[in-house]
Amino acid sequence: MSAGKDMRVKSLLTNREREVFELLVQDRTTKEIAAQLFVSEKTVRNHISNVMKKLNVKGRSQAVVELVRLGELQI
Predict the structure, then answer these.
(1) 59: closest CA among 43, 73, 70, 48?
(2) Residue 54: its pLDDT value, please?
(3) Is 74 part of a structural domain of the chain?
(4) Could you report the per-residue pLDDT of 23-49, keeping only the tens digit for each?
């Protein structure tokens, strides 16, 4: 194994999912997130839904709480 970042445990989130949730905790709307990331609102909702499934939670706020608890997201 090479040194540095490769030694870190693999993240639960993809880079894009992390971007979406970092914007979500900044109180951005789905529409604002989509515009900033140059994707459709549907794509943003899909990323949020995928993360909720990975975490086995029922809502965005539960997902944020769990991501913070797991150290995947800073608020």
Answers:
(1) 48
(2) 96
(3) no
(4) 999 999 999 999 999 999 999 999 999
Quick one: tokens of 39? 């994707």
The model's pTM is: 0.85
Number of domains in the chain: 1
- For residue 4, what is the DSSP state? G
Q: Which two tokens stand for residue 48?
A: 């949020």
Helix extents (H) in the chain: 15-24, 30-37, 41-55, 60-69
Instruction: Report whether pLDDT(53) > 70.
Output: yes
Domain that holds residue 59: 13-69
The domain spanning residue 27 has which CATH number? Answer: 1.10.10.10
pLDDT of residue 4: 47
Cα 40 from Cα 4, distance rounded (Å): 34
